[in-house]
Write a structure and sequence with these properties.
- Pathway: Cofactor biosynthesis; 7,8-dihydroneopterin triphosphate biosynthesis; 7,8-dihydroneopterin triphosphate from GTP: step 1/1.
- It holds the Pfam family GTP_cyclohydroI.
- By secondary structure, this protein is an alpha/beta fold.
- It folds into three domains: 107 residues, Rossmann fold, CATH 3.40.50.2020; 37 residues, GTP Cyclohydrolase I, Chain A, domain 1, CATH 1.10.286.10; 135 residues, GTP cyclohydrolase I, C-terminal domain/NADPH-dependent 7-cyano-7-deazaguanine reductase, N-terminal domain (GTP Cyclohydrolase I, domain 2).
- It contains twelve helices and 13 strands.
- A five-stranded mixed beta sheet has the order 11-8-9-12-13. A four-stranded parallel beta sheet has the order 2-3-4-5. A two-stranded parallel sheet has the order 1-6.
- Helix 2 packs across helix 3, helix 5 packs across helix 6 and helix 8 runs antiparallel to helix 9.
- The longest helix is centred in the C-terminal third of the chain and has 16 residues.
Length: 302
Amino acid sequence: MATDDTVSQATEYSLTWSAFKVECRLMADRLKAFAKERGVYGIPTGGCFVAQELSKLLGCHVLDTPKPGCLVVDDLVDSGKTMKPFVEDGYTCDALFYKPHSPAGYAPGARKTSAWVQFPWEHTAQPEDAVVRLLEFVGEDPKRDGLEKTPDRVCRAFAEMTAGYKQNAKDILGTVFETDYDQIIMLKDIQFSSLCEHHMLPFSGLISVGYLPGTGKVVGISKLARLVQMHAKRLQIQERMTADIAKDVMKHLDARGVAVITRAKHNCMGCRGVKDPVASMVTSEMLGVFRDDAKARAEFFA
């Protein structure tokens, strides 16, 4: 059985059938007082496996559809979208795992993990399968010439475009140099490309980063560009990305002030919806001196 630390600290966790049964036993132990005659309903798909195991452990029957007062279970609560209607309708709900960002109270006894959990019934499922389903959804034949290798290409492309999840600011900004320089340091027009988290379509543009050293700490100028790329290679919204870049520089360099400005064009509004490929979005984040001192801001924007 994996410990809490093993599950919470891993980036990926493959659950065996034996480990799955142990997790279900833990769930059953915390639900002993649940009335057997009420039954258990599993949210498809993973919740169905949990419900089957719980029915053996609790001596209750599995329901094809939920009924008032029954127990509703799932394998994992992430955004909470699938469990939300059951919680709102007053069902007793639980799951094996939940994520740090999951809604509070949706699975009160579940094990917390930030890892990608692969359940034993998912051992044949691959990301490429999802791409095949999308091709079928739009009416294409995934096996025709030109599309046979598309699922693999798409997955490799997404892995490259989301590589920032495997990086952290502490490592990038960890090597600093001592200096008595106390004026603005700026890197302008860093090119980036990111993915909008709403439609998973690209947005790209230029980012300028400036900071005012606070305790004599400066960093190699390329590190600012690497920090930008780390944040860009994730599913993002421009506002949050701009703010997070500024916060990381402020935190890791003990800066007196940080200024970040981002200009970008978004394909999610360029090729769909309003269909305006020319409009650009501008966001800025001013911290410390740059927020409080108009002269410092003016120097940054000059």
